[in-house]
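dumping the sequnces here before i forget
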Amino acid sequence: MIKYILQRLLATVPVVVIVALIVFSLLFLTPGDPAAVMAGDQATPEQIAQIRESLGLDQPFLPRLLSWFGAVLQGDLGTSIFTGQPVTKMILERIGPTFSLMLVTLVFAVIVAVPVGVIAAYRHNTLLDNAIMAAAVLGFSVPVFVLGYLLAWLLASNAQLLPVQGYRPLSDGVGPWLRHLVLPVLTVSGVYIALIARITRTTMLEVLSQDYIRTARAKGASERAVLFVHALRNASVQVVTVVGLGVALLIGGAVVTETVFSIPGLGRLTVDAILQRDYPVIQGIILLFSFVYVLVNLLVDLSYVLFDPRIRY
Amino acid sequence: MTPMQKTGPDAALSAAPASKRLRPGRFLRRWPALSLGLVLLALACVMAVFAPLLATHDPQALDATQRLKPPSAEAWFGTDMMGRDVYSRVIYGARVSLVVGFGVAVLATAAGMAIGLVAGFSRLLDSIIMRIMDGLMAIPSILLAIAFMAMLGSSVVNVIVAVTISEIPRVARLVRSTVLSLREQTYVEAAITSGASTLRIIWRHILPNAMPPVLVQATYICASAMVIEAILSFIGAGTPPDIPSWGNIMTEGRALWQVKPHIVAFPAVVLSLTVLAVNLVGDGLRDMLDPRRKS
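..and the predicted 3d for all of it:
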């Protein structure tokens, strides 16, 4: 088991290194001179050259890559061109709302999507199944910010039920925190629920046609036990895999949704950084999210042993 | 399938023309979702191609006296903050969405197939190529597209390039795995031992088998590209503001959506319906091309 975990950890190292290489190269190739931006309009060419030298921007590709990579390993993601603050500090200040949003969405989406997928498979080819699948196609098709405005208009603007803007940290109490998260979570979870429900249904359809399901029914297991114990357990490896892969949608969704609901998180930071052409910030956020994504999928791989006892490491 | 199935060597000959004859009524009953998707997609194409005829105003014409008007007989979808006609802008916006959607689908599929074939046939390049693809896939596609847009600057061509690069790995992986499994097939081994060239094997054996799943994948890429273009434009990193696209029309209505929802609502509905159309076509093609689903 420990050997397997180590193996999997080692296998993710090249992926992380390549991601870092891609992200660094993008910044390196970006036209424009960050030193000139930082120095401001009144700077003399000497001042700009000095800033460039102090940031190591006059170095060629390889030395810059190595010093950058060394710094990243120590948690230093560089300095923002726009604010002059360390990128790591800016990210840490904004991480709370985004991770709250992602985590609550993940839990909510799984709780809703898995039973819906199981029911669709159980009632295969009925009106209910068709309605669920039609809703899933719609969920895939409505872009996340469109869904955000629709929900805000339905639930907040007209009915005044929920706050449409902003975020309260968990330290303000669970109530206000959750109330401010309801609309953003519903928004981001749309595509995610569609994805998980669809894969749950497809996998359950395959599992339900297996011999051991007939055996379970024959020995008198209740329908609920057959569905949620015998069948779902065997479908869970595929479902968990897609839950992990879908985290990419969650990250993209969070970035956009924060703009719709004015949530001061990493998504807003990204959008502001794009408008200000603050490349070190963009680079740091992309690196962080990619790392989270790789980590989640590593955990998914390791979780297989919990769901399927046939998998032994 | 017909209830009375012929068997024997002449079955294929006599069955083929009959099943190829397309009767609209039967097609509609058998593939209702696919038909709906095709009709909606055709409508979006008509919008894009005949935009100058369908638009009632110049989509760029500013009119300070007509700012933020609600929908009326004069301006069907109302006007935006600068007095521009939202209906005409939405009509022209179809051009950007469809060009990006189809452009990315074609380019990502072509490049992904080429990369997948090389990886599948060359053991040496395989591990290098696939590590790069793994790295690209580890970056969530919207963020990768954002990174490219930050580097390239906003233009429609750059949106196509940025989204294409983030979609290539999916096609490359699919094609590579098809190549690897087909190479183990006896008939491909037979072709190799009988001295067929690699190009001939690709053309005769690999491509015909790889095409159906790649085609389905291409439609999903098209839908995803339209959504990513809209998202990029919406957050200000996509299509520049002087070219109307459904994403950037919504950006202009963003600050005022609670008081003037029409600026956001009309492009939102048209965008969602177009993406839905492409997804329905994708699902329909998948069911049509999947031999297991034929009953």
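Chain A touches chain B through 51 residues (CB under 8 Å).
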